[in-house]
Amino acid sequence: MKRQPFVLPLAFALLLCAAPVLAQQDISKVNGSIVAQAGRAYGDVDTVNGSITIEAGASVEDAETVNGSIRAHNDIAADSLSTVNGSIRVGERARIGGSVETVNGSVFVDRGGTVGGDIETVNGAIGIVDVDLAGGIATVSGDITVGVGSHVSGGITVTKPTSNWFPVQVNKRKPRIIIGPEAVVEGELKFEREVTLYVHETARTGRVNGATPTTFSGTRAPNE
What are the residue ranges spanned by the domains of the chain? Predict the structure, then answer.
């Protein structure tokens, strides 16, 4: 009788040999910053007191901190980015599958990026330039700039401050909302508090509720 090739055990052995290569490292700290090195793939990275840096070309799953900023360089990939007290700044051509969130801090996503979830903050400005955002933008007291060529699928919401935010101190100044040249905001633009809203003459938006848009031309919105 002809002997059958020893295929399955050999394939299993090759898979076991490859496992360490496929594994992605999680990094978790209480005190201290984290650096995801350029070009490497990581699992979850999280810290309590410290910043997170994602170098160019690196990929992470969820990146989370409580007291610290997140700085992501060009060509990174992540499932989500979140902090409580700190800003989030993302370089060009980022691929973020989920949301980008902070409470006290600003958010900026540079050209060519894609974000699969929402961008949210309570206190802090939000800015995107030439970004494709599948979710929406939400804030309580921050300015919002939907920069040139950006596409927001989930609308914009500016929520009215309430006592439920205590002990978070909410800035009471009037937010400034700018929809820039060739930008598109689908869905409702809902403003539960007074804002200043500028919409470029080449931009397109969904229904505006709670504010009166002021149309502008040129590259910059008027100074108040």
Answer: 27-75, 87-224
